[in-house]
Amino acid sequence: MEKREISPWQWQDRLSYVQAVEVKNVQGTLYVSGQAAVHADGTSSNADMRTQLGLAIENLEKVISEAGYEPKNIVRLTIYSTSSDEFIESCFDLFQDFVAKHGMKQTVTLMQVVALFETLNIELEATVVK
Questions:
Q1: Tens digits of residue pLDDT in 32-79
Q2: Quick one: which of 8, 86, 119, 127 is 20 to 30 A from 79 by CA?
């Protein structure tokens, strides 16, 4: 697989994403459903957004790993949040730690939504390649 990141500017670097990712000679593509703060028994977390983001990241990493892929090869990540302001103010550093931990170079869209399932307030949807 060949990956090429495209970012005509540098300002997005401090926000932990790139403007575009070109992928060639892919062996597989994994489309991951939105992963949220759902415990192994299927119950939704009612914790604060930061705690929920931590669990959502763990769940995303588990699905990717179980499929035989690696988080470093996430090329597209959509973040659904019930409050963009709260995500940026109280969770952005945790998101950046996740990106740095895996050396990711991915596109990102942050979307504020009215509600998510049950008590959830953050969800991560990804496209991963190998």
A1: 999 999 999 999 999 999 999 999 999 999 999 999 999 999 999 999
A2: 8
Contact 42, 56 (CB under 8 A): no
Count the Cβ atoms, other than its own, within 10 Å of residue 119.
14
Closest CA to 106 of 114, 115, 116, 96: 96
Domains of the chain: 2-129 (3.30.1330.40)
pLDDT category, 3, cuts 50, 70, 90? confident
Side chain identity, residue 37: A
Question: Is pTM, for the whole model, over 0.85?
Answer: yes
